[in-house]
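A favour, since you know our structure tokens better than I do. Would you make up a two-line entry for one protein for me to read? Write everything out right here, beneath this request.
=====
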Amino acid sequence: MFGLFKSAQPSKLTIEGIDGEFEVKPKETILAAALRQGVRFPHSCRVGGCATCKCQLKIGKVKELTSAAYILSKEDLDQSYILGCQSIPKGDVTIRIDSLVDGVGAAPVATAGRIIGKDKLTHDIVKIDVELDNSMTYLAGQYALLSVPGLIDAPRSYSFATPTGNQGGRYLTFFIREVAGGEMSTWMNESAETGQSIVVEGPYGDFYLRNSDKPLILIAGGSGLAPILAILEDALQFKNPRDVTFLFGARTQNDLYCLDQIIRIQDNWAGKFEFIPVLSAEPEESDWQGERGFITESLKRFAGPNKQAYLCGPPPMLDAAEAVLNDAGISINDVFSDKFLDRSYGTSK
């Protein structure tokens, strides 16, 4: 009789690539348990809206607090990927965190630094330059978690906008778009000043240029330009000869930025480089002579088999672009996406 009221027992969590087992308390998520015990588990929003804590469930079962079907791709779901922040184990479980097992880039570290530069790029995107106390090595395309001691302790994820470079990763740049209700993005755009202390933890993520000779299709929207620029600058340093088609989506001419930098890359690229900015809300009476409409309509002209694609920007744009690429015959193994989510998609940047 008393067995009916037996309290729930902790579960055991095993993470491939990390020695030992970790205790997961009843009703505790995988992410919360890992962080509590010192695991550097990639994460950001903690509410199931960003996929930063994506991991693969290898053994066992979990209870999902919210469905991961919107955030994760069909391919991810078919391969048993889950969101660590929304998954409570039903017994002992084993998971795989790709960035830990695959050795993508350097191991994450947290280091202090300070803001040394701030420039407005558009009405809602600011460029933040940071000097670190200690260097950080990362792959172009990866991201870091930023926090502001005493002001914004919960970290937010932002992609590196430049490659490691000759300074060994002591000087970093981020593009931060202001979103309504976003604590970090609002502070960075409106209140941040040079000299302000900041903590940077990283690198994280598996968005980086793969070795291949296939022509590249690059797609960026909004602040999603940051990792694409980092990848291009890094590839330029090594005279990468792959042909590039780069589509940059924005609402109006005023939302385009870093055009001089892109043109410089185009002029010095070893292979063919075609740059196509696409405006979705440019006034009809303006002097704009370039592409108009949704970026997916322009993409249809350039997508084709035997190409490799890298996409970064808001989820609706990327979902639509992935469908176009799939219809064009590009293998899912050659499509790499980095969805930039904010409060409007359930996160709190």
Q: What stands out?
A: The radius of gyration is 21 Å. The chain has eight helices and 19 strands.
